[in-house]
Specification:
Layout lengths: L1 E7 L7 H12 L2 H12 L4 E13 L2 E12 L5 H13 L4 H22 L11 H16 L6 E4 L8 E4 L2 E4 L3 H10 L15 H10 L2 E2 L7 E9 L10 E9 L3 E12 L4 H13 L4 E8 L5 E10 L3 H12 L5 E9 L1 E11 L2 E12 L2 E7 L1 H11 L3 H16 L2
Parallel strand pairs: 1-4, 4-7
Antiparallel strand pairs: 1-9, 2-3, 5-6, 8-9, 10-12, 10-13, 11-12, 14-15, 15-16
Organism: Methanococcus maripaludis (strain DSM 14266 / JCM 13030 / NBRC 101832 / S2 / LL)
Protein name: Nickel insertion protein
Keywords: Nickel
Length: 404
Amino acid sequence: MTKVLVIDPKIAGMSGDMFVSSLLALTNSYDLMDELILELEKLNNCNSFKVSVMDEKVNGISAKQLKIEIDEERIKNPDELKEIIINTSKNLMSEKGVKICENIINDLIEAEKKLHGDHFHLHEISSLDTVFDIVLPVLILEKNGFLDGKIYSTPPSLGNGRISMDHGIIPSPAPSTLEILCKHEIKCSKVDSEFELLTPTGAAILSNVTDEFTDSYPEIVLLKTAYGAGTKRMEHVPNVLRLVEGKTDEKIIEKTVILETNIDDISSEILAYAVERLLNEGAPDVFITPVFGKKNRPSSMISVICPYHVHEKFAKILIEETGTLGVRINHYDKIRAKRRMEKLTLDINGVNFGFDVKISDLNGEIVNIKPEFEDLKKIAKNLNIPLRDVLRHANNKIKEIYGF
């Protein structure tokens, strides 16, 4: 089973505290919250940090809402805030989680710097509340296995109206929110509201924990829902963030597209360059098939296999490079086994070499193990021996370790 989390800020945006409260509602990870509070209260600038999690009804929906009371000295500069977040997260989670926390605060600081120059004040994010909002959700995601699964998000709603900031009153969304969305090229949704719905912290967290943005829910088995409430209330829209936990089988079903176009009026050099560019831009598979086109002219059909969510990018490249007037789009469901990489060590002629193996398994059963040939080529060149000899050693090592 692969864990899946769907974040749904299309309803009413997202803030840091809404994400925290919805995660607490989903996972009951109050022990992790207590661990983080103990870490925060060890800081020199924190006298006390108290959090209450309340049950609220928001337009008829049961949700959790946070109330935070902090006695603190505000953080003075960006470097200090970043140091606190990194050091606090290091005490609680893995290197992967720490890196996500660092990326989140980097997005917030870079957005402020771009707007106000190198010498700026933290203003809205100068409180330990920001540390709490960044570190706790990543900690909960990691400890509950979501960082090892897949996290989706719907396009976030931004909100309207005006917001009061230290720099004055400005139309929603906040400038920092827009900077972060632009950096990550995130699509947004429209909801009629006179409030700010997506905050800068919410945007930064969403951008860095989400694996894939999707207009609709993925094809998963749905297990559990939870809601976190914001502080404001709207007449027709519940101000909540919805989370949905799900699972997939070890076999992963992907929405896949095959793009096709027939070409009969460009040189082989141009065609070869088009294939090269498609592969360099990340297309998983590109191939050319000889066909007969209009008036029985010999032609080439160029095909690109790619995930659905990036097919527009590769269709654009096809049109740019070949001058074709149209690209056919064929939709398919692709089932693939779960894959992981592991590193093994070879001893050849008394010298140790590391190489990666790609392991594919289906429902917990290994179906294939392949050595990474780029690693084997380097070993062959280093020892000046045939590649097939290195491959034999690698396969023997795989059989010794995995019995496969």
